[in-house]
């Protein structure tokens, strides 16, 4: 769906922000892009819908070279949910705000109505449809912003720091929502610093540092590599730290996926069973 | 409007004679230039003023940013030129050009002042000439937040383009309408930001002390007086030339 080949980018004559990025995103991918501040994460995702064009190299979206196609055409395939909903909300009612993209993409009146009803229901925004979006709470505004992108059904959805300032319950809801979108076949890309959220909900991680990709792999591999995480100024998830301490202090080495709590309990149970059985025999 | 135009208001620390100059002396330059610019429609006079601006920008190592500012002003300048041409007729093309050129000259001279004067110095200078600190601070904040405003504006444009907004599509009325989804969030966002800043300042006891003291004191030096005199002489010379040649 998205192919990034040797992408180099800088703002005007400034230093290089992206230095030779190679990345491919396929249907059904559930991917987190992580890295320290200033690593180039947001700059990278702005290439996915052509807001930024490569200075060197190539970005292809659904086979289209982003340098040759308008943002509005690419945006039809790649939805970008910005970090702060206040940067986009302008309409007088929630439903107008959510329908904005549909009107820009020239959907028919019937289609606008159907899609609007569907997404407002899915996002739990039905009761707010005639409310002024500026007066909603932070979490509600964020849902409006998400709905306004998801309503036109892009095949790739990119979220910039979606967990910022969200409480536990909202994060949980968001994580499950991402799973549902992913189950529908959409590719999901999440830019975040939130390792706990990634450990709980995301399959794959790309680590970006100083404009280069330093690692890509399963969340289980990347988020348990303490040296690698230290290099990109991230703390390992708590369960990975717990597993590390168990190994160091009790020589208890967990095998398998222990980043989520249910997986952790399974791994621990398996270890106990194996070792207790071994001792007995 | 290109965002690069806003760069003409952005101060960056450098150590040149323009940066070191007392703002009270420096402000004479844009004011004198403005007076002359508004009095004349002579393209030669305007070119002369623009040349002084380019020379000063070169000396202040801000020439590149000045040119960017002027490039940002290009669209607006063209609009002024075309509108004047339409309403005044093709035979007064030179006057229409001069009106548009005025904007370029004004933009250049004022941006040199803003590019080389820190907002703090500006506020200090205002207090020195008797303006209450609250007003000076409000002015200083509005200048200091220009880069932030430019960043917010870019993010908002990006967010709306990501939802399929095409700023350049349609006729003139449609194009003006296309800017609503940009301007409304910008205004709401900035008004909210100003409330947040006011709260943050009040929680740090802003306004509790009536008499303020300052770490830096402004003092007019010999070179500042020379600069003021040069500006005044420039203005007198122009007025003299105007009475004789009508330029």
Structural descriptors:
heterodimer, A: alpha/beta, six-stranded mixed β-sheet, four-stranded antiparallel β-sheet, 11 helices, 41% helix, globular, B: 247 residues, mainly alpha, 72% helix, 0% strand
Short description:
The complex is a heterodimer of chains A (281) and B (247). Chain A is of the alpha/beta class and 281 residues long.
Describe the model.
- The complex is a heterodimer of chains A (281) and B (247).
- By secondary structure, chain A is α/β, with parallel strands linked by helices.
- Chain A contains eleven helices and ten strands.
- Chain A has helices at 41-45, 71-75, 94-104, 109-122, 138-150, 168-183, 195-201, 219-222, 226-231, 238-250, 261-280, and strands at residues 2-10, 16-25, 30-34, 56-61, 64-65, 78-81, 156-160, 187-191, 204-209, 212-218.
- In chain A, α3 packs parallel to α5.
- The N and C termini of chain A lie far apart (54 Å).
- The relative contact order of chain A is 0.14.
- Chain B has 247 residues and is mostly helical.
- Helix content of chain B is 72%, strand content 0%.
- Chain B has twelve helices and no strands.
- The radius of gyration of chain B is 21 Å and the shape is flat.
- Chains A and B meet through α2 and α3 of A and α9 and α11 of B.
């Amino acid at each position: 769906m998205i192919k990034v080949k040797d992408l180099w980018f800088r703002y005007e004559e400034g230093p290089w922000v992206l230095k030779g990025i190679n990345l491919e995103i396929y249907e059904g991918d559930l991917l987190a892009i992580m890295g320290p501040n200033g690593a180039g994460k947001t700059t990278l995702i702005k290439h996915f819908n052509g807001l930024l064009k490569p200075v060197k190299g190539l970005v292809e979206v659904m086979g289209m070279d982003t340098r040759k196609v308008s943002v509005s055409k690419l945006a039809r395939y790649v939805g970008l949910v910005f970090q702060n909903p206040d940067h986009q909300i302008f309409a007088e009612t929630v439903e107008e705000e959510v329908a904005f993209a549909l009107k820009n993409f020239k959907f028919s009146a019937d289609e606008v109505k159907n899609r609007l009803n569907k997404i407002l229901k899915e996002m739990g925004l039905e009761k707010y449809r005639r409310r002024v979006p500026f007066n909603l709470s932070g979490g509600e505004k964020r849902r409006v912003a998400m709905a306004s992108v998801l309503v036109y059904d892009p095949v790739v959805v990119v979220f910039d720091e979606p967990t910022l300032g969200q409480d536990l319950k909202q994060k949980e809801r968001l994580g499950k929502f991402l799973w549902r979108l992913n189950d529908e076949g959409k590719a999901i890309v999440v830019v975040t610093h939130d390792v706990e959220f990634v450990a709980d909900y995301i399959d794959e991680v790309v680590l970006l540092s100083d404009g280069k990709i330093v690692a890509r792999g399963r969340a289980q591999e990347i988020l348990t590599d303490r040296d690698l995480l230290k290099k990109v100024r991230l703390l390992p998830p708590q369960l990975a730290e717990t597993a590390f301490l168990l190994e160091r202090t009790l020589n208890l080495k967990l095998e398998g996926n222990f980043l989520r709590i249910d997986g952790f309990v399974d791994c621990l149970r398996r270890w106990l069973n194996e070792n207790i059985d071994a001792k007995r025999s | 409007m290109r965002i690069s135009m806003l760069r003409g208001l952005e101060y960056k620390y450098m150590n040149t004679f323009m940066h070191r100059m007392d703002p009270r002396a420096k402000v004479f330059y844009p004011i004198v230039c403005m007076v002359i610019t508004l009095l004349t429609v002579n393209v030669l006079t305007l070119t002369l003023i623009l040349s002084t601006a380019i020379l000063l920008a070169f000396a202040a190592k801000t020439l590149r940013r000045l040119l960017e500012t002027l490039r940002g002003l290009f669209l607006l300048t063209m609009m002024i030129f075309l509108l004047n041409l339409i309403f005044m007729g093709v035979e007064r093309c030179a006057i229409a050009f001069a009106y548009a050129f005025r904007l370029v000259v004004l933009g250049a001279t004022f941006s040199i002042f803003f590019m080389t004067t820190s907002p703090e110095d500006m506020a200090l200078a205002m207090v020195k000439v008797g303006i209450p600190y609250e007003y000076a601070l409000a002015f200083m904040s509005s200048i200091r937040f220009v880069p932030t405003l430019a960043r917010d504006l870019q993010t908002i444009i990006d967010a709306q383009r990501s939802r399929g907004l095409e700023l350049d599509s349609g006729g003139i009325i449609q194009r003006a309408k296309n800017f609503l989804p940009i301007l409304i969030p910008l205004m709401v966002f900035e008004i909210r930001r100003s409330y947040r800043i006011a709260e943050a300042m009040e929680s740090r006891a802003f306004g509790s002390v009536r008499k303020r003291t300052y770490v830096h004191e402004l003092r007019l030096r010999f070179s500042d007086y020379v600069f003021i005199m040069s500006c005044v002489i420039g203005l007198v010379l122009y007025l003299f030339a105007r009475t004789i040649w009508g330029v």
